[in-house]
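User: two proteins, same treatment. go.

Assistant:
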Amino acid sequence: PHTDLGPMIEALRDAFGAERLMWGSDCPYQVQKGHRYEESIALIQDRERLDFLSDSERSEILRGTAEKVFFC
């Protein structure tokens, strides 16, 4: 699921850098039938689905950017 977002994520990463991207849960859609939180976050974590992201970029998108925005 959600692999159709890959080209958009890559374009945003190329334009702004991973340090300016932040993963979001897309709530309240995660609680609707057919949508799961695990599948949404797995898109960023899975090295095969978004093979253009490095481990450090994944870390920025999933954690680093949010820490800078909310805890600086």
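Protein 2:
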Amino acid sequence: MSGARSRRKGAAWERELVHRFREAMPGADVKRGFQTRSGEEAADVECPVFWVEAKRGKKPNMRAALRQAIEASPDGRLPIAVVRDDRAAPTVTLLLDDFLDLVGEWWELRSR
């Protein structure tokens, strides 16, 4: 796949994720991250809670995507990798401790 085609595919995936996060988080400021070549890190999808690295392709590397999110995320935002293999359902990868924190918060709210 050509570089330009691959970039278009990635940008389309990021736009899809923006729409899906907006549906899940009504009223939240969710948008594509500003991508630069200056070395400054920006999330692929900007949202209040998560630092989202989005990868799509034939065999995207979810571990590398999560590592990228962990290294770039500021304090307070949970690093996640949202990965979609071609012709497959998307998956989310995050650290177990972060996942269990989310589960604990969800359980507490549900139990009220």
